[in-house]
Amino acid sequence: MKKLKVTASILFMLLSVVVQVSAYPPKGAKPVTDPTVVINDFQSHLQKIPYLSDAGMTTLNHEIDEHIKCLKNWSDKEEYAKEHDLYHYLKEQRDSVSTYHDYSETIVSDFLRLYQFADAEKETTCRDSLKAVLSDRLGKIETSLNFLDREMNGGNEKSFFDGLDWKTIAVCVIILLLIGVLYLLFKKKSQPATPVPATPANRVASSQGNNGDAGIIVRRKTATILKKQSLEDVIGNPNYLQIDAADFTYESAVRRIYIKNTCIIDIYEMYAEDLSRPDNPKEDGCMVLGRWVYDNESQEYYVSLEQIVLPGDDAVFAEYELNFGGKIKLRVLEQLRKLRRETNFQYDLTCWIHSHPGLGVFFSVSDVSVQTQLKHPSHPNFLTAIVVDILTPKQDLGIFTYRRDTTINSKNDLKKLYSLQEWYEWAVNSMNGNTDNTDKGNEEVKEFSREDFFDTLADATERKKECQAIGLSREAIIDMCMAISEQYSGLVALVHGHENALEEKKEYTATVLSNSEQADKADLIGCFVVDNHLSIPSIRKAVDNYLDRIKFVLFYSPAEGILTTIPVEGNELSTNENNYGEQKLEDLKLWTRRKA
């Protein structure tokens, strides 16, 4: 099955090669006078094939170098290889190289159809050159894989037997066997062995040292042996959002999904910056680690999503393009090792997430290819995929799973879409419900904390008791960025939150922005105004209907990219600029992403 999986993946890439070739301008075959031009074109063409491109080979070499470096410093190479699934990795890569070797003739022939040669001899020479170019690239990959294989099996040191032929080795083996037999005969005569009954106690002692300490078994196998497959601590846990597959699809090999609240918040924060620039949408994504159990009776899976793993700096996220890069594999393996050792649970890659900004929620052909490459070798059907369209009002989210026949659900199979925004609100509420802050009759709000809110008056040179701090929650900042993206000017939104009295000082926490004067469990405390130039008369005119109820105005200038916080004193905007706070919008966006 693994070979079929790899072959299918390579065939998909080869198909993309054919598509790329056929995508050239249909102006007929190009006449060839200099074969060097064709060779150069072919080398450029190989850059379009991810596996054979310079970037792809660099990524692969980096992965291999990292593994070799770790193997050199690892006390037990076999343990590291099993722990990081290097045997399967090596086989998969060699299968890929072998498949490209098998299809090299097809790749070269398809490319040469674009050119017209003056005679058959030039075409044959050019064909051989292209094969040599392709073979050279594959040979470099094979060399790197051989280095990894050698390190996995003992390192790069040259063995004494490497320089001997088989006859010499056979003679050496026979001599050693004769020496061994003679030694055993001599030992038997000089020191007759006394038979000892094979009692259970003796068997235990023989596997331990003289003092009962571990003697023979010195390697720790706990890292390679499967840990406990359990979700007992997850089921019924208020920190996990429970989703039944029957609610969002008609048929699924996964029956129920449990998503941890901290995981949801991390996913939401990952897309926070993308939400602020809908005019330049970029795909983004991550891997999610969790646990799974299999019900043999119903033949269904129960899956948890608990911790995200972000890509490394080699990832490429552009408009409608998603490439996770190679470093994320090492990050996933390292986090899995850590989680398994710390919890004694069998954590695995249970989900992967990516966005379709402005395109809607669906599962593309390339998404299916990624899903196939990421699935578990022996239990493929528990792997879940989540697709988010972050440019919809509620951040529409679809869940895609395997059916029992190992096919993947499509957009047409979805009964409903979820909302990442609503998941985030649930996650925040669930975490607040687990704190020590309890309702005290009037729904007393916890006091302002720099850990939970961004204080927009942090750089004000003077602060008045009536407005000591104005904190924006993560959600309020995202709402503000989305409001800015609508490109309106004037009064854009109303700010809702709470007033917090601390002795004689007053602080305000903004939790949400909306177009309504009322918000659930929050009061109207401010206004959000957008204009290119800060003008107190213009701002006063825009918020005149709310001056008797608000405590501050948030003013954003798209021309400068600056958010200015203006306190309200006695139903009037403060004219003392020392009381103002100024923050770059980019700093606020960065805070939403770094906030843990």
What does this structure look like?
- The chain is α+β, with helices and mostly antiparallel strands.
- 40% of the residues lie in helices and 20% in strands.
- Helix 14 (365-374) links the parallel strand 11 and strand 12 (384-389).
- Helix 11 packs across helix 15.
Draw up the topology in text:
Elements: H1 2-22, E1 30-32, H2 35-46, H3 54-73, H4 77-83, H5 86-102, H6 104-112, E2 115-117, H7 120-152, H8 166-190, H9 200-206, E3 240-244, H10 245-248, E4 254-260, H11 261-270, H12 272-275, E5 285-290, E6 292-295, E7 300-305, E8 307-309, E9 316-318, E10 321-323, H13 327-343, E11 348-355, H14 365-374, E12 384-389, E13 396-400, E14 418-419, H15 420-433, E15 454-455, E16 469-472, H16 474-485, E17 490-502, E18 505-514, E19 523-530, H17 536-542, E20 552-557, E21 562-569, E22 572-573, E23 581-584, H18 585-594
Parallel strand pairs: 1-2, 4-7, 11-12, 16-18, 19-20
Antiparallel strand pairs: 3-4, 5-8, 5-11, 6-7, 9-10, 12-13, 13-14, 15-16, 17-18, 17-19, 20-21, 21-22, 21-23
Helix pairs in contact: 1-5, 2-7, 3-7, 5-7, 6-7, 11-15, 16-18
Which structural class is indicated by helix and strand composition? Answer: alpha+beta
Oligomer: single chain
Counting DSSP H or I runs of 4 or more residues, the number of helices is: 18
Rg, rounded, reads 32 Å
